[in-house]
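User: Before I run my own analysis I want an independent prediction to cross-check against. Here's the chain; please return only the structure tokens and, at the end, one sentence I can use as a sanity check.
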Amino acid sequence: MLAVAADTPKVLFLGIDGCRFDALRKANTPNLDRLIDQGIYADNTRIFHPRYTTADTISGPGWSSILTGVWADKHGVLDNQFKVSHYDKFPHLFVRAKEQLPETKTASLVCWAPIDQYIVASADKRYSFTEKDYGERDDAATDEAVKQLSDASIDVVFLYLGATDEAGHASGFHPANPKYVETIQAADARIGRVLAAIESRASYQDEDWLVVVTSDHGGKGTSHSNGHEVPEIFNSFLIVSGDSAERGKFETDTYIVDASATVLKHLGIDAPEDWQLDGQPVGLKK
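Assistant: Structure tokens:
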């Protein structure tokens, strides 16, 4: 009997800056709801580890941890100034993927320039959108993500959406704030466009897509700085969705560093010990 070839692993990695999960649940989010239903989720994913709490609870350390899979005592970023970083020793997950699988094709689409300027490395395609309005940035990034997903060779797409964080700073990070909730609904609509682009690929039936969604922090009032003892800030969320994902709700602790480790594992990469990753693959069936 001939062996059946395994579907090709692919990843859509989504970041929604400053998104509280309770607000996501309040919002009308059919696409994110579908991802949750077709996967596993946590509503209390921690954005820092008790081992090291010096880093502020803001985007620089948060996205550094998410995209490198290590905490700030390793990657070195404590705030949004990026005066110190150790990305040479603890690089972006694209670097790690290409170390093990050099032919991996990657694309990064972000709306907060420091991610592209400081963190992203080894992306085959990289775009930083800097329109004045974050809604326009998110639309432009989504348009480009749809375009990139038409390329049959693409393996990993990272898409960052920033309008939710901007709305929280402007009028409050809270599910009772309609302007904040509206930006989550807008993010969901953009995610729907990207999911449709994946499902319309000619090769889709032969691909095993994993969708990972997380945020760098929550928020309280109009801020999220110095939130180490504020659950509304230090709790993020994690969604791992797709045919290769488990179902239900995580029963064990999850951390934002687990996101990149999970992406790498789905691609077939077992992280060597010398990478010193703090994150662990979570939510995968095998």
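Sanity check: The longest helix spans residues 178-199.
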